[in-house]
Amino acid sequence: MKQKTTFVCSECGYSSPKWLGKCPSCGAWNTFEEEEASVPEQNPAVRRPSLVSAADAKAVPYDELDMPDYMRLGTGLGELDRVLGGGLVVGSVVLLAGEPGIGKSTLLMQISDRLGSNRKVLYISGEESGGQLRLRAERLSVRGKNLSVLTDTHLEHILSEMDKVSPDVVIVDSIQTMYSDKVNSAPGSVTQIKETAMAFISRAKSFGISVILVGHVNKEGGIAGPKVLEHMVDSVVYFEGDRQQSYRIIRAIKNRYGSTNEIGVFEMTDTGLEEIANPSEMLLEGRPKNVSGNCAVCIMEGTRPLIAEIQALITPTVFPAPKRASNGIDYNRLSLILAVLEKRLGQRFSAHDVYLNVIGGLHIDEPASDIAVAMAAMSSLSDRVIPDDLVAIGELGLAGECRAVSNIEQRVREAARLGFRRAVVPYRNAPKCKDIKDIELIPVRSIFETIRLLREPENASASFS
Ligand code: TYD
Ligand code: MG
After folding, report:
1. Which of 145, 151, 255, 465 is deepest in the core (most CB within 10 A)?
2. Gap from CA of 110 to ligand 2 centroid (Å)
3. What is the mean pLDDT of residues 156-179?
4. With contact defined as beta carbons under 8 Å apart, do 229 and 72 qualify?
5. Rounded CA separation 341/447 (Å)
6. How far is CA 449 from CA 187, 295, 401, 426, 452, in A?
7. What's this model's pTM, rounded to 2 decimal places?
8. Is the CB of 244 within 6 Å of ligand 1?
9. Structure confidence by residue, pLDDT tens digits, 193-232
10. Given this model, what pLDDT does residue 463 score?
11. 165: which residues sit within 8 A by CB, 6+ positions away?
């Protein structure tokens, strides 16, 4: 085979005969890596896995298309099944990404055990020895029925073992450690990842094997390797959380067989991951009391309402340009909320540093948390405490108006269930919640009314202190 050197963009896989500082395809800087590539005719990356071979593909009238009935396998972890859209689809390829040490191998070993109750599972590990895997499995009380383990990184050999074992489910831990003889570059390089992932994907599609690929994340939090990897697989699932703390969140960012709204919550215990069916309770555990800058909100994660806590810390700035740091809320959203407060309420945020944090490592990307963010910010700025039993829900408009949000009833009910006694809700949403017991509604039309609650608590409710 004729060899030549190419430079490949590690973000998008664009290749160029010479090194480039900026990728002309995706615009990323300093992403070109030198790789030895085979000549294009033999480049395996151009082969595409396909459900039908090119020869028999033809146009079909819409109503003759088969309505698919995906067969799904229960993983034994309901939280994971929900994120996948109801279980692992037979013949699908899932990419599970996460930081080292977050618990990917633990999660996969746990589900291997359950999947093994009626399917053949092959766990391929390129990172740990058989002994290490066994040690972990013992800790997780894995029985290992129908489970085979292969500690190897050589693709061609792995594929021939797969033919012998003929598994229903294959776990590849991790795709960055695998290498193929067909490519000369090192494991983890763009071409190796593409080549090996493509081989597993073709197997999955042609033999109906469910494949889970573990992917490492780079320092920016993206999946290490080519961006095309995410396009090649059916679902991309992130496993995240704070390693110092025990809870872990799993979320789909791409899912060909379900929605991407759902999250699954787990706790890492000394016997593995345990599902948390009521994450709100966990997130509220150990909440600080009587501190300014804290405000509870009820967000929707897919079909589930979830109570989250927003913390703001506002301090006079010592920098020429005030600092803004946001953890869990989009930075631009925070800037917008601060701009509205500055313009409509005349608050001097421009002279203050603003730090915002969502407790529990959650990422909130719905505007229904705006009012809570605004209240937390105002509470910290004025040093007035928001009562612990108050939850604030609503979107903030640019004119300072408080806009209605979806699923208000579900949100307020969840708050009431968890012991909240007051709910700030958008005025237009309030009628929908009037039948909910044990919680007092505080309907607000605008940010002015909301902030007045902080200034003149007695107007809002007799017990507002
Ligand atoms: P691991 O699954 O190896 O993470 P990854 O594959 O994502 O790199 O898990 C790593 C951490 O989980 C490790 O630091 C120990 C901890 N752990 C527990 O707390 N309880 C357990 O039962 C197991 C197996 C691991
Ligand atoms: Mg691991």
Report:
1. 255
2. 13
3. 95
4. no
5. 8
6. 59, 16, 10, 11, 5
7. 0.76
8. no
9. 999 999 999 999 999 999 999 998 877 767 777 777 899 9
10. 34
11. 120, 122, 148
- Distance (Å) from CA 240 to ligand 2 centroid: 14
Regarding the beta carbon of 271 and ligand 1, being less than 6 Å apart is answered: yes
Find the Cα–Cα–Cα–Cα dihedral 355, 347, 421, 406, rounded to 10°: -80
CA–CA gap between residue 357 and residue 408 (Å, rounded): 23
For residue 142, report the distance from its CA to the centre of ligand 1, in Å: 15
Task: State the average pLDDT for the chain.
Answer: 87
pLDDT in tens, 393-408: 999 999 999 999 999 9
Decide the pairing of beta strands 93-98 and 210-216: parallel
Verify whether ligand 1 is closer than 6 Å to residue 187 (CB atom). Answer: no
Q: Which among 323, 342, 458 is positioned nearest to 396, based on CA atoms? A: 342
Average pLDDT (66-79) is: 86
**Of 16-25, 145-154, 410-419, which one has max mean pLDDT?**
145-154
User: Which residues, 6+ apart, have CB-to-CB distance to 348 below 8 Å?
Assistant: 342
Cβ neighbours of residue 117 under 8 Å, at least 6 residues apart?
A: 145, 146
Q: How do strand 147-151 and strand 121-125 relate by DSSP bridges?
A: parallel
Q: Say yes or no to pLDDT of 2 above 60.
A: no
Q: For residue 453, what are its two tokens?
A: 């609650």
Count Cβ atoms below 10 Å from residue 4 Cβ, excluding itself: 10
Closest ligand to C-alpha of residue 269 is 1
